[in-house]
């Protein structure tokens, strides 16, 4: 099968592309290289450099390769930035995604696997009842007002329901002649759950996939994964952001002298060591999850959504300890106040993926730290010093 991977030059995308190539899929990567890296793309994959906002260029890619299915990783991912520049996230994460779905419809490409996120779940109110998080949470929780935290819209500070309505009004303005994209009341209620614009854009994408299933029979699977860390065990590809945003990467950057200190945001949580607990997942486990989801989707022709996580939580201090053990070096830390909106616990219930997809995470926190350290310590500047062989890529 021929698989088009959007955002396939990025962190998780490139590792998934490598796994697809191993499994003998014919892979085409579509990436703007805004945040992706040409050097991360497997040499057996074909690379097309263009942006999803460029409908003509994307259509040419579909005409050239005629893919059987799409795996979509193309999105902006920074939660904080999404609250400061929400229209940027609406355009890239939603409008560009609609472009992709429209082209898939026109070219009769009927399968898509979507990179979604635990951010769609927001901040569960009842941790004892709702944790670990099940997929049904998004169907069962019906808040009357938006849970959006404070952010900005055109330079004006806003939050909650007012913030959401500004976002929805702009969405409507962008698609004035697309009544099929209008959101029903139950869909708007669902969009009240996330606490960030980033989470809303990803959840809106899931809603849009359901609409395209009903209208055009494009079958989809959304994979909601939790906190990603680690690198390919080979040490050849991994996370390469200009500024690290995840805890494990920040801790490693501190050891490498790129960050002065790691702030521990809250030491007063009701947890064994007083720090927040998260479910961490290795990108290689995610890559296998995408392949399992693709095989299931094609075999069963049924849209669905799945959590991808370990089902186990690790605290901030446990993550830092794992980095110290992997690097055999000490991470410099300082205590700081809690960050607004951070939940005490965020742990996935991956049992549905286990039962339906026969998928289970294999890498533990130690593996994540060891592979991350191997990658970052040997590539402290990401792919900057990577020597590219021109013959590696089939254009």
UniProtKB/TrEMBL annotation:
<dbReference type="InterPro" id="IPR005886">
    <property type="entry name" value="UDP_G4E"/>
</dbReference>
<keyword id="KW-0413">Isomerase</keyword>
<keyword id="KW-0520">NAD</keyword>
<keyword id="KW-0119">Carbohydrate metabolism</keyword>
<comment type="similarity">
    <text>Belongs to the NAD(P)-dependent epimerase/dehydratase family.</text>
</comment>
<feature type="domain" description="NAD(P)-binding">
    <location>
        <begin position="186"/>
        <end position="370"/>
    </location>
</feature>
<comment type="subunit">
    <text>Homodimer.</text>
</comment>
<comment type="pathway">
    <text>Carbohydrate metabolism; galactose metabolism.</text>
</comment>
<protein>
    <recommendedName>
        <fullName>UDP-glucose 4-epimerase</fullName>
        <ecNumber>5.1.3.2</ecNumber>
    </recommendedName>
</protein>
<dbReference type="Pfam" id="PF16363">
    <property type="entry name" value="GDP_Man_Dehyd"/>
</dbReference>
<feature type="domain" description="NAD-dependent epimerase/dehydratase">
    <location>
        <begin position="3"/>
        <end position="139"/>
    </location>
</feature>
<dbReference type="GO" id="GO:0003978">
    <property type="term" value="F:UDP-glucose 4-epimerase activity"/>
</dbReference>
<dbReference type="InterPro" id="IPR001509">
    <property type="entry name" value="Epimerase_deHydtase"/>
</dbReference>
<dbReference type="InterPro" id="IPR036291">
    <property type="entry name" value="NAD(P)-bd_dom_sf"/>
</dbReference>
<dbReference type="InterPro" id="IPR016040">
    <property type="entry name" value="NAD(P)-bd_dom"/>
</dbReference>
<dbReference type="Pfam" id="PF01370">
    <property type="entry name" value="Epimerase"/>
</dbReference>
<dbReference type="GO" id="GO:0006012">
    <property type="term" value="P:galactose metabolic process"/>
</dbReference>
């Amino acid at each position: 099968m021929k698989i088009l991977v959007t955002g396939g030059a990025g962190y998780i995308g490139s590792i998934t592309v490598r796994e697809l190539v191993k499994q003998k899929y014919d892979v085409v990567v579509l990436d703007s290289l805004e945040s992706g890296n040409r050097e991360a793309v497997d040499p057996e994959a074909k690379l097309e450099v263009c942006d999803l906002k460029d409908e003509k260029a994307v259509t040419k890619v579909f005409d050239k390769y005629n893919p059987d299915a799409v795996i979509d990783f193309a999105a902006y991912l920074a939660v904080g930035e999404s609250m400061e520049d929400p229209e940027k996230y609406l355009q890239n994460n939603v409008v560009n995604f609609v472009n992709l779905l429209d082209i898939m419809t026109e070219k009769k490409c009927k399968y898509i696997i979507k990179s979604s996120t635990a951010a769609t779940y927001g901040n569960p109110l009842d941790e004892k009842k709702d944790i670990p998080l099940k997929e049904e949470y998004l169907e069962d929780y019906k808040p009357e007002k938006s849970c959006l935290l404070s952010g900005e819209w055109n330079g004006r500070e806003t939050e909650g329901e007012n913030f959401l309505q500004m976002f929805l009004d702009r969405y409507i303005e962008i698609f004035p002649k697309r009544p099929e994209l209008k959101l029903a009341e139950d869909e708007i209620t669902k969009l009240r759950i996330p606490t960030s614009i980033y989470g809303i854009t990803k959840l809106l994408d899931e809603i849009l996939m359901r609409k395209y299933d009903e209208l055009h029979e494009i079958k989809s699977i959304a994979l909601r994964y939790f906190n990603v860390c680690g690198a390919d065990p080979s040490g050849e590809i991994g996370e390469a952001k200009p500024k690290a945003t995840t805890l494990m990467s920040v801790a490693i950057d501190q050891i490498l002298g790129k960050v002065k200190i790691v702030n521990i945001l809250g030491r007063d949580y009701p947890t064994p060591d007083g720090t927040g607990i998260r479910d961490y997942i290795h990108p290689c486990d995610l890559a296998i999850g995408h392949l399992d989801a693709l095989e299931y989707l094609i075999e069963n022709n049924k849209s669905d959504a799945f959590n991808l996580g370990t089902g186990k939580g690790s605290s901030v201090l446990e993550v830092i300890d794992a980095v110290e053990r992997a690097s055999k070096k000490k991470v410099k830390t300082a205590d700081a106040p809690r960050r607004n909106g951070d939940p005490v616990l965020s742990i996935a219930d991956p049992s549905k993926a286990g039962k339906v997809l026969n998928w289970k995470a294999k890498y533990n926190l130690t593996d994540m730290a060891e592979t991350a350290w191997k990658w970052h310590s040997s590539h402290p500047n990401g792919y900057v010093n990577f020597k590219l062989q021109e013959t590696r890529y089939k254009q």
